[in-house]
Design a protein that fits this description.
296 residues, alpha+beta, ten-stranded antiparallel sheet, 17% helix
C-alpha cells in the first residue's frame, strides 16, 4: 500500500455515521496503555450521530458525541515505512437499518471476510472473480439477514453491544455454520498487546478493537510535504468498535538518525460514511478491549 498524496482543502465534511456512533508514547514492547476500566461498568459500543465541520478544527457537538479535525505536522529527515495488508481485503458491509450497531458491523466484516473461504458463513451469497481478482459480493438480503442474526446473538439493542455480547454472539454465529471460531484476547493488564495484534495481522487474521474515543484518518489524509508530513486526524468521542485487516507502521528519523516519532495506523472499515481508512493507535485513541479472530 502506498501513501496517497493529496491536497488538504478546508471543505465541509458531512459524516453520516452508519454504525458508530493526549499523546500516547509507543514503548519498546509496542504496547499502548489504556486506563483501567471499573469492573462494575457495563460498556456499550455504538454511537449514532451526524457530524458537520468546516475542517478548521472547530468542535461540533451532537446528541451522539463530538468531533474535531486536528491537522498535525510531523517534521523529519527520513521515514521507514512498514506496510502489512491482508491480500484478501475486507467487504465494506454494514448493519443496515440498525441503531448503534458498530459492533454488529465489525462482526459482519469478519463473517464476510471469511465467507470467501467458507461460503456457508453467509448462505445464498458469494463473491466473484473480476480481472483475475476476487471481488466481494455486494451487500444484499443475505448479508442483511446475517447482520440481523449477529445482532440477536450479540444481544445488541439501541444502546449498542457489550464486548462479551460481541465475543459470544460472533462465536455462536460461526459455530451455527459448522465452522470453528478462534477469538483470542489481545488486551492484557489494561494494555493493548499491539505486538500480538501486528503479528496476527501478518498471519492473515483480523483484529476487532473497542475504543472509548478514537482517531480515524481517510486514505489520502497523510500528505507528504517537503521535509514533513501533514496528518488529518478526525477525532471522535464516544465508544466505537472496528475490525482491522492490516497496519501501517511509520518510523520518523531526524538527520542524525534519531527516532523522533513512531505512528501505528490500522487499515480498517471505519464504520463511518468515509468507508475504509486508518485507525490511528498512537494518538487520540483509547483502546478498551481487543480480540484476534480467525475462522477454520
Amino acid at each position: 500500500m502506498k501513501k496517497v498524496v493529496s491536497s488538504l482543502l478546508c471543505v465541509y465534511l458531512v459524516l453520516g455515521i452508519i454504525c458508530s456512533s493526549g499523546f500516547m508514547y509507543l514503548f519498546a514492547s509496542r504496547r499502548i496503555g489504556s486506563p483501567a476500566i471499573p469492573q462494575a461498568e457495563t460498556r456499550y459500543y455504538g454511537t449514532s450521530e451526524i457530524i458537520m465541520t468546516d475542517g478548521t478544527g472547530d468542535i461540533v457537538v451532537t446528541d451522539g458525541g463530538s468531533y474535531e479535525c486536528i491537522n498535525e505536522y510531523v517534521f523529519y529527515d527520513h521515514v521507514v515505512e512498514t506496510t502489512v495488508i491482508n491480500p484478501n481485503g475486507i467487504p465494506c458491509y454494514f448493519a443496515s437499518g440498525m441503531l448503534n450497531a458498530c459492533a454488529v458491523t465489525a462482526g459482519g466484516i469478519v463473517v464476510g471476510h471469511f465467507d470467501k473461504f467458507y461460503e456457508e458463513l453467509i448462505p445464498n451469497h458469494t463473491g466473484f472473480i473480476f480481472g483475475g481478482d476476487f471481488v466481494y459480493g455486494a451487500q444484499d438480503a443475505a448479508v442483511d439477514a446475517m447482520h440481523q442474526d449477529l445482532a440477536q446473538r450479540m444481544g445488541s439493542d439501541d444502546q449498542g453491544t457489550t464486548v462479551s455480547g460481541y465475543v459470544n454472539g460472533l462465536g455462536s454465529y460461526i459455530r451455527s455454520k459448522d465452522r470453528s471460531p478462534s477469538i483470542v484476547s489481545a488486551y492484557n493488564y489494561n494494555n493493548l498487546d499491539l505486538e500480538a495484534c501486528m503479528d496476527a495481522l501478518e498471519q492473515g487474521k483480523l483484529v476487532t478493537l473497542f475504543m472509548n474515543g478514537f482517531s480515524v484518518i481517510p486514505f489520502g489524509g497523510i500528505v507528504i510535504e517537503d521535509g514533513y508530513d501533514t496528518i488529518m486526524n478526525l477525532v471522535f468521542t464516544g465508544r466505537h468498535a472496528i475490525t482491522a485487516y492490516g497496519y501501517l507502521l511509520l518510523e520518523y528519523y531526524d538527520s542524525y538518525d534519531n527516532l523522533v516519532q513512531t505512528d501505528v495506523h490500522l487499515y480498517c472499515y471505519t464504520g463511518l460514511s468515509m468507508g475504509e481508512g486508518y485507525l490511528r493507535l498512537s494518538r487520540y485513541t483509547t483502546v478498551e478491549d481487543a480480540y484476534i479472530i480467525n475462522i477454520t
